[in-house]
Automatic annotation (TrEMBL), chains A, B:
Species: Agromyces terreus
Record InterPro entries: HTH_LacI, Lambda_DNA-bd_dom_sf, Peripla_BP/Lac1_sug-bd_dom, Peripla_BP_I
Any one GO molecular function term: DNA-binding transcription factor activity
UniProt xrefs under Pfam families: LacI, Peripla_BP_1
Domain (HTH lacI-type): residue spans on this chain: 9-63
Signal sequence bounds: none
PANTHER family, A to Z: HTH-TYPE TRANSCRIPTIONAL REPRESSOR PURR-RELATED, LACI-RELATED TRANSCRIPTIONAL REPRESSOR
Claim: Lyase is one of the keywords in the record: no
Keywords: DNA-binding, Repressor, Transcription, Transcription regulation
Protein name (record): LacI family transcriptional regulator
Domain of life: Bacteria
Amino acid sequence: MTVERSAPPTISEVAAEAGVGRATAARTLGGYGYVSPELRSRVLAAAERLGYRANALARSMSTGVSHTLGVIVADIGNPFFAGVVRGISDASRARGFDTIVLSTHESLDEEIAAMHVLIDKQVDGIVVASAALGPKTSAHIAEAWSRGIPVVLVDRAVPGLELDAVVIDNREAAREAVTALIAAGHRRVGFVWGPPIAGRPDRRRDLVDAAARNLWTDGERLRGYLDALDDAGLPFDADLVMVGEKTEERAIAEVERMLGLDDRVTALFCTETDAVTGALRAIRATGFRVPADVSLIGFDDSSWAAVMEPPLTMIEQPMLALGTRAAEVLLALIDGAPRSQPDGAFRHTLDTRLVERSSVAPPSA
Amino acid sequence: MTVERSAPPTISEVAAEAGVGRATAARTLGGYGYVSPELRSRVLAAAERLGYRANALARSMSTGVSHTLGVIVADIGNPFFAGVVRGISDASRARGFDTIVLSTHESLDEEIAAMHVLIDKQVDGIVVASAALGPKTSAHIAEAWSRGIPVVLVDRAVPGLELDAVVIDNREAAREAVTALIAAGHRRVGFVWGPPIAGRPDRRRDLVDAAARNLWTDGERLRGYLDALDDAGLPFDADLVMVGEKTEERAIAEVERMLGLDDRVTALFCTETDAVTGALRAIRATGFRVPADVSLIGFDDSSWAAVMEPPLTMIEQPMLALGTRAAEVLLALIDGAPRSQPDGAFRHTLDTRLVERSSVAPPSA
């Protein structure tokens, strides 16, 4: 009996056609476990009559193309990464590729595990916002390449790794924001958040090293803050840089500390969304007001920032465009384009924008 | 020659060991394309000497367990779903399962495609926030089951489908919020957002049907709004329900319209984050203030809502717990537990919480 139908037949239907149990059909068609030769041949005959297709996994093993891209991000709950993923997914869908995403909770070990999952699932290419800091910690990325799976970095470059990286200029964006605060008259500008270390080094070099050891973007943003101080001839003061765990709670404590200094901060530069909300809570808790008492600029614009009272001046990252460009570069590599220049410095740098609203004013007297 | 090493050998290393090109080794080990019998046997011998392992994809085809869960959500950029995914991922990692995520942009067609990707990638189970509205549109979910892959619904039940669904009581949460607004003295409460339809039906039944046809949660939240009006003996007025596309821009236009009515709204109930920010923009644009002129309660609490001026009263959904519970139910099904009761009414309902802050006050005179 053959069946006229448009939907592909299921294992249960093959089992019914063969007159065997579902488990027997599944074992036969999946190629696992024991099935007697007689039942096996009945199942295979039924599968052929019904036009049962081997699943795409088996197909991808024979064709080498699964039309799936893998994406690894640090934290899927961060609206920034959600926007990047959206951009990747839109651009890859337009080319007939599905996108699967894994989140690593900012853990390099989880990133390595995620990379192996994607290799095992035979994706055609991978976009990763990597926590790796150099070639020594990026063997998992090299392994994907060695298995013929192209990898493109997004948001975070890995210094020394010869790979396409689609990023913004974090250092320049931070410099621009802090320069805007200094131009408004501020001399005591706090940096939230800084490196996640217990002690507070006095030397700026040690702070920068600690930040860069944690995350490439962290180091770049701290460098941009220092650039702006240098440009204006302002002294560096380690007390104005947050240290400790990168959480909203810790940001509250550190900003309250900076607001309690004898020569207190009059402006804050916050490098992430939770740093912004933590700073705002600390400002409110200490009875200060934005921007009359404290000016503030944050990273990662959102619809919330625009409806705050006052609306917040923010650095807007091109989240969708970062994702779109990363997907385009990856799809070109899959199509056989050469990868980045061997000097390893090949970066696709997209523009940020300082969205000026009403959270910056001259310092109060 | 055998090589002492800890990292698994790559295809390139097998090729070098066999003295063949990488493409030849890849074709042989991947089982695709033509390779001469002589080269094939050299590659296979080299692979055996180096201990090259067939990839996990091939392994999962022979063992039937890939230790991977699949998650399908409507919009990975929505912080609510990001929280749910985080909960699923934490709970499944604790059991040694990786989680891969696909986002469907609220499209049933994309959900169906995503389901097939996950079936093809041989995940062991699937959690889906489905756009399906009943058994007629959920054949893809049944197909996963028929292939031996358990499915658990999260956030959205599918009426008539006999499946475990981990949800909140949307109707009750909405009723509680609107009742709080009415208890503060409001008689003209706007509902943002309503069904995404072009015209504005006068009959409440038509509005509810339109909302429920769009999304299960939409229908439930509108019913809760109507329950609260009924409880208080307040009349239903179709003019106080937003219609049209569910975007921040449309919410701005609809709230401005409601604020411009002769008998204007004095309170708003907003069912999603972008509805809240749209309402706040409209309130500001028309010169009104929260809560002096307009009270507001929103769905999906966030750290932003707490730092608004005034801090916003919000319904807090247990995002992480929804994800954790969904993963637990799914892992139990994978372990062989029976699925939901055959009446199809078996739901795991988690509690919401009305977080009272400062955006609700009595109506102005």
